[in-house]
Amino acid sequence: xxxxxxxxxxxxxxxxxxxxxxxxxxxxxxxxxxxxxxxxxxxxxxxxxxxxxx
Length: 54
Prior knowledge:
Elements: H1 3-10, H2 14-21, H3 29-39, H4 43-46
């Protein structure tokens, strides 16, 4: 998927999503929940606290 498509699904600006990908900014809890749901993984997996995706 394109960054624009993911940002739209997460209800955030494309620039914000790009900054998350490049490590320039960290998402807040609400965005983390949306990302975890979108990608079908746990928040712990997203933030590197677990290798278990679910």
